[in-house]
UniProtKB/TrEMBL annotation:
This is EKC/KEOPS complex subunit BUD32. It comes from Cochliobolus sativus (strain ND90Pr / ATCC 201652). Component of the EKC/KEOPS complex composed of at least BUD32, CGI121, GON7, KAE1 and PCC1; the whole complex dimerizes. Residues 1-236 form the Protein kinase domain. Component of the EKC/KEOPS complex that is required for the formation of a threonylcarbamoyl group on adenosine at position 37 (t(6)A37) in tRNAs that read codons beginning with adenine. The complex is probably involved in the transfer of the threonylcarbamoyl moiety of threonylcarbamoyl-AMP (TC-AMP) to the N6 group of A37. BUD32 has ATPase activity in the context of the EKC/KEOPS complex and likely plays a supporting role to the catalytic subunit KAE1. The EKC/KEOPS complex also promotes both telomere uncapping and telomere elongation.
């Protein structure tokens, strides 16, 4: 690849290239899906949330490729520790508005864009011995989604056998009932937020695990990934 620079060498399973001739970005990797490009386009057309513009996307030979605009900004992760209370409030207010905006979008299924499988953390597990490796969803209803959670729990247990603790968890899942599917980013971390010198949020990045899910997902995934006490308090 000529005149291209990998700007995310720390990524485990994907790389992000700056195509210097066109000043665009190529996101490429085995876990990169066209569904992410569709999510970025959906958010751009349905909200005022700032996201990179997508120019093209395809999957070939086990790798996904997304061509998008380059957004100039600083990762929130790099500067959050320098913020005073007023600066924290300024950024938090913007992010809260963005999250409310995309969670106001409804879907008629639970899964990734394009009616693809769910990429919620609840379904991400290594299969237990003698159990198949599989994906879950998409689901047409929350009841189907909850049944998928139970299937995922079974698939993570040796020989698919539940214990007493699992039985209690299954009862809780079954009591969740029905509900709407809302759009969730699914990986909102300071690394995936770009700001400018005036503390304006200029881009929300990395929608690789986004899609329509239960409303509780966004808070749970953001909170569970929080490794910074200040960021954790901003989520609350």
């Amino acid at each position: 690849m000529t005149k291209a620079k990998n700007i995310a060498v720390h990524k485990i399973d994907k790389s992000i290239w700056h195509l210097q001739d066109s000043d665009r970005i190529l996101k490429r990797g085995p876990n990169v899906k066209v569904a992410e490009a569709e999510a970025l386009r959906f958010i751009a057309s349905s909200t005022h949330v700032p996201v990179p513009e997508v120019f093209g996307a395809y999957e070939k030979d086990g790798f996904g490729n997304i061509f998008m605009s380059r957004v100039i900004g600083t990762p929130l992760h790099d500067v959050l520790h320098t913020f005073d209370e007023a600066q924290v409030e300024r950024v938090t207010t913007q992010l809260s508005g963005f999250v409310q905006s995309w969670m106001g979008l409804r879907g008629d299924f639970f899964g990734s864009m394009g009616f693809e499988p769910c990429r919620d953390v609840f379904f991400q597990h290594l299969p237990a011995a003698n159990m198949p490796d599989r994906e879950y969803g998409p689901f047409r209803s929350r009841t189907e989604y909850c049944n998928g959670l139970i299937d995922a729990l079974r698939n993570s247990r040796p020989y698919g056998r539940f214990d007493a603790n699992d039985a209690h968890q299954i009862e809780r899942i079954q009591r969740l009932g029905d509900g709407c599917a809302v759009f969730c980013h699914g990986d909102l971390t300071p690394d995936n937020i770009l700001i400018d010198d005036q503390l304006n949020v200029v881009a929300i990045l990395d929608m690789g695990v986004s899609g329509f899910s239960i409303p509780e997902r966004e808070y749970f995934e953001a909170k569970s990934r929080a490794r910074n006490s200040l960021w954790s308090s901003m989520i609350d």
